[in-house]
Amino acid sequence: MPRVSDLEDSVAKKRGRRKYSPSAGTEVEREMRRYKRGTAKSGSRGRGGKVKSRKQAIAIGLSKARKKGKRVPKKRTSRR
Q1: Beta-strand runs (E) in 1-80
Q2: Burial class (CB in 10 A: 0-12, 13-18, 19+), 58
Q3: Torsion of CA 51, 28, 32, 75, to 10 degrees
Q4: Burial code of 18-44, b = ≥16 C-beta within 10 A, e = fewer?
Q5: Are 1 and 35 in contact (CB under 8 A)?
Q6: Mean per-residue pLDDT pooled into runs of 10, the chain (80 residues)
């Protein structure tokens, strides 16, 4: 059975590290501004049309952050 101090250490480590880097959050904020202005586009080179949902705008911002090498968790697989 693990000691109490070991459990406390693991909890502290989990709390200390952010899942998303601050610069990744900035990238999402930029995309949200584009969405609110109505200039956010989806698809490669913006040919997919206008972004209509907040979730889609957030996903685009995270995707751009990943491409730039920011710390962002891996994409979730689809659940069907």
Answers
A1: 41-42, 49-50
A2: middle
A3: 30
A4: eeeeeebbebbeebbebbeeeebebee
A5: no
A6: 60 72 94 95 86 94 94 81
Q: CA separation (Å) from 71 to 19, 41, 48, 62?
A: 7, 24, 27, 10
In angstroms, the CA 29 to CA 17 distance is: 21
* pTM: predicted TM-score of the whole model, two decimal places: 0.71
Model pLDDT, residue 48:
86
Q: What is the pLDDT of residue 66?
A: 93
Dist CA 6 CA 21 (whole Å): 27
